[in-house]
Amino acid sequence: MELEYWLGRGVDAFREWASAYGEFATHTSMAVDEAACEVAFEELTARLRGSYPFFHPCYAGQMLKPPHPVAIAGYAAAMLVNSNNHALDGGPATSAMEEEVVEQLAGMAGFTAHLGHLTSSGTQANLEALFVARESRPGTAVAVSAEAHYTHARMCHLLGVPVQTVPVDARGRMDMGELDRLLATGVAGTVVVTTGTTALGAVDPLHRVVPLARRYGVRVHADAAYGGFFRLLADGRTDGRTNGRTDGRRASLAPETAAALRAIAQCDSVAIDPHKHGLQPYGCGAVLFGDPDVARFFRHDSPYTYFTSRRPHLGEISLECSRSGAAAAALWLTLKLLPLTPDGLGAVLAAGRRAAVRWSELIGASPYLEPYQPPELDIMTYYPASPGSSPPRLSRVGVASEEVMHRGMNAKEDPVFLSVARVTADAFTARRADAVADADDTHVLRSVLMKPESELYLERLHQRVEQLAKASWTAPRRRGR
């Protein structure tokens, strides 16, 4: 896709549409000097070179990747209009697009009925779900796992809702026995289940949480901000777009993971982030509710907005006000070309999933790297192996992991960008019983393979990380550690 061409098409289409309203004078206060603009723009592009190469598969660190060119073109075309999807007055065209993409997201989730809208972030989506949970179960706590995203504790604090933390099992998933004991006390009115934790990519057993929660009359919210789009792979189909280079079976999810993702359909609410696996620019999250009647909790009045239509305005079912209509347009255009099917957008996720499975195999066979735990989605966790097959010592694992990360990202030639995750001694020894727990916690390496290009780059990535891991045990300890 030639991005320059489609960006130009967007500008041309805007000018053609705008010309129908007649010419008008541009105010002199809006004028900028072309020479000054040249200088400022050069400075801007120079400063942007200080970013990490999120677009390149050598970047295998955080949950970062560029949006699809289709999304960029769609966003730019709609941004020229600069609509606001709070009210139909502000975004009649893009509000309709938002309703259409939300319908598609609800279909992917498996909701037969729904109320929902796009949000500016996953944090906002979770806030709205927790707000509805508070109104639906007043005076009760929210139960979250110890590996849940920190946003839930923050949003509950904002809402004045107490939080109950549920321990996790040896794979970082919500412990069902501990949850049962908590729900039996009657203290919690909502359980937040994470389908793809941000540190490990662990998927809580949602298919087992739902019936347990229903037995106690408790609501279930799925934080599927990261893992929700993997629902496209949860029915056992694998995409056929492997080009003869990969084994399509590696894209399949473990049965427990697939069952958990299918159970999203039974939840009261779900948060999902198109700006992660949906290939969108930042500023595009979504919240969905299985019961449209929760609209009553959002009901409010505005003396100057909701007048152009009796159809509900998106702002009437949202806590946010101003919100970019361009985000809806970008997602709408993307889903026209990469629909929510296993062979559409699912093929993009399948490539990352295959890369993670393959890298797990390579790490398992490496003399220089050890797996921390197998990937459930496309997030890898691992650490440098101890020399001579000796048991890992937590204090040294942390130093070696950070050494690999820093040396990789600062290399003048062939850099590689990884991240680290802090894990407790108990979590580490639960996975490696012979580990020497000489520290309360340690760091392991973490890589997010959410770019499909990672699949084709994997052998080179693995070799480079192996080189760094081998060197990490002989490298001098960094100052301040």
Q: Would you write up a description of this structure?
A:
This protein is of the alpha/beta class. Helices cover 39% and strands 12% of the residues. The strands form 2 sheets. A 7-stranded mixed beta sheet has the order 1-7-6-5-4-2-3, sandwiched between helices. Strands 8-9-11-10 form a 4-stranded antiparallel beta sheet. Helix 3 runs antiparallel to helix 10.
Number of strands: 11
Query: What percent of residues adopt helix (DSSP H or I)?
Result: 25-40%
Strand content: 5-15%
String of helices and strands:
HHHHEHEHEHEHEHEEHHEEHEHEH
Indicate the structural class: alpha/beta
Unreliable segments (pLDDT under 50, ≥5 consecutive)?
242-246, 476-481
Quote the distance from N terminus to C terminus.
47 Å
Number of helices: 14
Q: Could you tell me the radius of gyration in angstroms?
A: 24 Å
Sheet with most strands:
7 strands, mixed
Which word captures the global form? globular
Oligomerization status of the protein chains? single chain
Please tell me the overall pLDDT. Answer: 94
Strand order of the largest sheet: 1-7-6-5-4-2-3
Ordered list of secondary-structure elements with their pairings:
Blueprint: H1 3-19, H2 34-48, H3 69-79, H4 92-109, E1 115-119, H5 122-136, E2 141-145, H6 151-159, E3 163-166, H7 176-184, E4 188-194, H8 206-215, E5 219-223, H9 255-262, E6 269-272, E7 285-289, H10 325-337, H11 345-364, E8 369-373, E9 379-384, H12 394-410, E10 419-424, H13 425-431, E11 441-448, H14 453-472
